[in-house]
Input
Amino acid sequence: MSDLAIQARRLTRYFGAKRVVYDLNLSVPRGSIFGFLGRNGSGKTTTLRMILGLLSPSWGESLVLGHDSRCLSPAIRARIGYLAEGHPVHGWMRVKDAQAYQSRFYPRWNDELFQSVLAFFRVDPNTRARNMSRGERAGLCLAMTLAPEPDLLILDDPAIGLDPVARRSLLESMVYATRKADRTIIFSSHLLADIERMADHIAVLDYSILRAQCSLETFRSCVQQFVLTFDGSPPRLPPMRGLIQSISRGSQLRLMLVNVSQDIRTTMQGLGAMRIDEVPISLEDAFVSYLGGTLESDRPTPSPELALSAGGLS
Amino acid sequence: MPFEIAISTGSAVPIYRQIVDQICRGIAAGKLTAGEQAPSVRALAEDLVLNPNTVARAYADLIRDGVLEAQKGKGVFVAKRRPIYTKAERSRRLEASLDAYVNEGIKLGFTAEELHEALERKLAQFQTNRE
Output
């Protein structure tokens, strides 16, 4: 069996003239918890839907659990758990209706797991889905996604709209789900704290293009912040490869850099600063700078040196 | 176990590093004693709500540095002795940290004498702290 749970090659999708996903190469290692990041509208949901075979690509292809996404058999589908964005439920169903309905499709239905996920979210089994809070609905959806014991879990923004307690229950359920060896989870999120807790690998989509794909640790170590202190006001910066943000404040110049090379260090040292300090940053700061940097020169198409590629840094 | 690990997200310190640091501090403070069993990777991951790979990464570092030791089939324990490296390994590690010191110092524009003095000062400081 392949070491990849998901493999996408040159996956591309247009809606009319609008490019939503472009030339995406994605490799999700089996057994990983893979965080899928990107701003709203960057193409995350479209990508997941193509991988699931719910939407056909304009071109390109993807394999999921080693099978072509475009023609997944029911047996393969039963091994994939998909939580669609927004926690959709059938409003008229009570928990036991949902359970009776869903369990019939799945040979490996684990009712104990179903009940324990509901308990994590404190869902009263007699509530109708339409009367549930957002958190309870999320619990029901997640229970229905996990109970079939899928090998691959695809969670599209599972934390959306959840309060902190329900969010924690979600994360607890995800950790619980990893009790089964080799289970792969891919989830999209805007919550960097959740990514930090859960993800070992990440992919970053930006304006339909994959900007980074690597381990979380690699991402953190590749985005570095330096504070240069000058005697007087900082000089004008020469062009620096890998510079994603520069902020000048008083006699200090704060530089955010990706993939700092020896050349860049030499350039920095040549600026005449009294001192150069590397100041560690949080994942959130690294991510915001990476995607929302004040320098426009690298968008929408990043230079290959800037993008943390799967080939170079994984 | 009264010893608790507290994880903060949004920190500049990666989570696996927070675990390593807190276990080392727990041992230094006597909250964890030699021979004590550490929670399993799975138990700690579920307790702290973390990716088990992150906990495994922290434990691997701690085992590599001789802080924890894994006993096959029994679990992970606080190591009995301070880590003892081979002579070659000790030299290698000292060499690596000297490289880092000298490189950084020269990069920052210090002269050889200044680096020398700084090292002397640091050693003297350590001596005073110990006495």
In short: The mean pLDDT of chain B is 87. The radius of gyration of chain B is 18 Å.
